[in-house]
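Appendix B. Extra example for self-study. Work through it before the problem class; the solution is given directly after the inputs so you can check yourself.
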Amino acid sequence: MKKIYRLLAILMFGMLTQATTCEDDIPKQNYIMNEDKVPQEPYLTTISSDYFQANVARHGWKWKGSWRIGEDGISMRYYATNEWDFMPNDLYFGTDSMTVFLYKQDCNLRRTDSYTYDAANNLIKSNAIVYMQLTDADSLNITFIERLGNYYYKSSYERMLPYEVNARWNGSKPEQQ
Amino acid sequence: MKVRLILFSLLSFLATCQITGQQPKPFVKGGLTIGLFDGTDASNESAGHTGLNLGAGIQIPLSKSHPTFLEPALVLISKGNVYDVSKAGGRVTFNLWYFETQLDFVYRWKIGTHWRIPIGTGLYGAYGISSKVSATNGITWFQGIHVGKSPSMFDDEIGANRWDAGWRVCTFGAEYRQFALRCDFEIGFFSQFRNKKLYTLEKKSQGANWAFSLNIGYSF
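Solution. Structure tokens for the complete assembly:
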């Protein structure tokens, strides 16, 4: 009998540890902090403007998840759903302008501005965003290092279907109004 | 201790020459080398880097009755690797130049009067003297390496080791009189990289130099 109780205790402890290790299963990564304390992708590889225009531009991108990057460059907390202190955005890239779909003050808003893609550093430069560095991209998924609020995040997005883009556009209003 | 070993080896070789009564023959050789780094875990395909090699050595006969030779040589050789960066539409080339000492043990099959087929194996030790990183199509970053600045491969950013050593797995070819056509295949014993930029280094051999050389030679 004692052996059975011991076994049960071990099993229960094991289940408890499994329940609390979901975030630990997500691979952590060290980022290089530059002199402005902006995290840089440690394995950054150039993505050309042509590739960006062919695979990223003219598509909408739906937020999937983000890892918050600590000030020491180590990725910390993982977000897969919106939480009170984290409001991700969906994105649309045109050929020369981008739209950020955001939720603010209980409203679905959109912010549109021109952008340029700096292929020398994979940077997307626009007044619609604070900081965005493309770290990986293919025809279905993209990842960025971006600034949201007070922190930097490694965020992944998946491509939206055209009707999803239309729904986001029609369901939001310009931020200025 | 090491100096004594080297001196002993040299004296042994010279003594062997005296025993066989045959004169060592100097030779020169040069040709193309296709280099690779062992294992590619970068998310980009790699292709061999084509470089050059040029050197000189000496054929030391080891036996009167059997055509076996010891062939030390000093060679200037270019090794490296080329990576295709598909998302940038270009390539990144890592080029390393080494002074390499080669030591081959070769058996020469005599065919007819003037033809010989040499086949052998051996070891090499090398010291890196120069490197070059280049990229096409405006590629500035590769695996976190700022290739746009053409950094030295021996600096910490890429972390290539200057020293290299390995096995000359096989060397074979054809010889006609004093002319030779030879193929060599080398594998490094250990990784050329001391950091994990290009390779995760899960296996110690990841990033080791591989080289295939095609040479023409002339012995005097």
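Self-check: The longest strand of chain A covers residues 107-118. If your reasoning did not lead you there, revisit section 3.
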